[in-house]
Amino acid sequence: MLLYDYRGIGLSRPKALRGFRATVEDWAEYDCTGAIAWLRERFPPAQIVGIAHSIGALLVGGARNATHQAQLVLIGGHTAYCGDYGERYRLPMTLLWHGLMPAVTHVLGYFPASRLRLGDDIPGGVALQWAARRLPELRPAGTGPEYERTHQLLDRCALLQRPALLISISDDAFTGPAGTTRLLSYYPRLFPLKQVVFTPADAGARRLGHFGFFRRAGGSVLWPRFLGLLESQASSG
Q: Looking at domain 10-236, which of 1.10.580.10, 2.40.37.10, 3.40.50.1820, 3.20.10.10 is its CATH number?
């Protein structure tokens, strides 16, 4: 298994994020693409399974060499549209991600998500792209060089025809049923597609949320079940 960080995140973070240039398109075109290429070069016969979480569910299909992946696994995937946030959390999350985040990012040059216990700090370019996501349609209405890379990323997702396993978490504030439907609208050719919803009860927990699948308490229970689903889908395909 290859685990990697997008530029500006985790071990791929520079000493200072202020002034560091990174966009969502960079994460797909360079980082996802580079990870897939690294695996293909070192393990030519292997079937590559692309596993992505959250907004990464779009990036893994938007890589330039996305077709080198034999299958996709999309966990808690969404398109960052505020109207798709869980109803209970929609107002506070909209204020946080689309109000506070751009304001703080303009001041600091990045969004200090770690201080709010919201994961890794986010490079300024990515944070402002996310904050600007206000309309249901993700594809830009305008044309021109500044929009071309986004169109190309979404075109690659739309053309990708692969088996896929889509995992949702019932109490995920970012990704409700509407968000899942919206994500899949950008992947019209995924087939066969298996959708699974895990609940906190499945993990013996009070809550899982957006990140619970990757935390020790919930993940130690759910990952074996996930791997069983993956093996089952592979054998049936």
A: 3.40.50.1820
